[in-house]
Amino acid sequence: TTSSHEEGCSRRWSLATHKFLGKNGKVCGVEVEQVEWIPGPDGGRPVMKPTGKVEVIEADLVLLAMGFLKPEHPQFAENVFVAGDAASGASLVVRAIASGRKAATDIDSYLNK
């Protein structure tokens, strides 16, 4: 995220995604809610607390960063790009990097056609 910030992108923290909004088959926004993080039980992992402050962020592209999906999980659909563990299951970091680079190239080609 440092390089994207240096290129002028904004970053927002402590937002929970409610839903993606679409029009004519294309994404046009993301409904989010501001959250607070409170200490977890016994000082463990923090717990997300909704604040009720909901807003829509306009978007024409949404990239998801997520963890591992089981290989048998349906993962390919038109205009959906996957990389790293989501595409091939848990593996080496170097493979995830290569997969991410290929996905970035494919996304760039898709957006510029």
At a glance:
With 113 residues, the protein is an alpha+beta fold.
Description:
It is built from three helices and three strands; from the N terminus they run H-E-E-E-H-H. The protein has two domains: 1-61, FAD/NAD(P)-binding domain (3-Layer(bba) Sandwich); 63-113, no CATH class. The longest helix is centred in the C-terminal third of the chain and has 19 residues, at 93-111. It has a three-stranded antiparallel sheet, with no helix packed on it. It is globular. A hairpin with an 8-residue loop joins strand 2 and strand 3 (47-58). By secondary structure, the protein is α+β, with helices and mostly antiparallel strands. The two termini are 26 Å apart.
